[in-house]
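Hi V.,

You were right to ask for the full record rather than a summary. Here it is.
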Amino acid sequence: MTSDFSSPASDLTTAQPPLPETEPAPPVAETSFGSRTDFNQLQTAAAAIRQELGRIIVGQQELIELLLTAILANGHVLLEGVPGVAKTLTAKLLARTLDVPFSRIQFTPDMMPSDVLGTSIYRPNKAEFEFRPGPIFASVVLIDEINRAPAKTQSALFEVMEEHHVTQDGVTYAMQEPFMVLATQNPVEQEGTYRLPEAQLDRFLFKIHIGYPTTEEEVSILQGHHAGRGSAMLSAVQAVLTAEQVAQLRQQVQQQHVEPKLLEYIARIVGQTRAHKSLYLGASPRASLALLNGAKALAALRGRDFVTPEDVQYLAPAVLRHRILLTPEREMEGTTPDEVVKLILQQIEVPR
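Predicted structure:
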């Protein structure tokens, strides 16, 4: 049997019955990955704090983002950098953007725990001791050059940094929320300093390195100084958030969605620090919690109500670098904790 392809097209058209008219297909709904949580208040507050800090701080956008993340994650921050890179200024400015009590403590080698926590004094008229709170009783506490105090004073911070209260003479005094410690230290100068105990380092959510500005940023700093800006602008920095608003935003961050596979990803990263051949000491489970809380806060800052592997990877160096110890061999070779964290991230499969 052969087919006849020689028939004119007009004949084929007249031979076929007309096709019935069909209704247009309904439009396909677009898949949306937008946030299901309203982060307008959080985004507005973060933008306002960035604007206030931007009046004085030139550049340092990563530093500001990490500080905002720490506020939302209810964590303490250790700022490390050489003298003159605005560690103390940044901490003071951040405190000014929060309408909460602020205190500054300059740590020195002769400082005692009672100089920080407070002490009990005897009241003869009442024939009893009365507790006088120390400078730690504030919402934002700037501890300048924290590594200049001896181990005895450093140890006095363990309880208050972790549990947000101070126990004195058998009585427990709760801290006013929010409670956040911003500490600074100089990594170069070693004379008259003490290495922070591992237990205290573990209580810091982030350790942030503050580096030198770029040439363009330094020119901008010089222009501002030459124009007389600086001290005048410092007083112009306004409070953006109250304590109640900070509490509301933190509660919103806690409700972020995290996939179970991301929890496993965090646990594998931190667990790998305990088995890595370049490390003498790995990170504790507190590091896992810090990485989770930080990732939830960072995702909210970036307008998402769910955490991604990129959030975890971005925060891993700041969370882990002060919680791990290199082996003496790696330390002599000049390897840095950040390089080991980067290797660990490369070795672990990213969940998708």
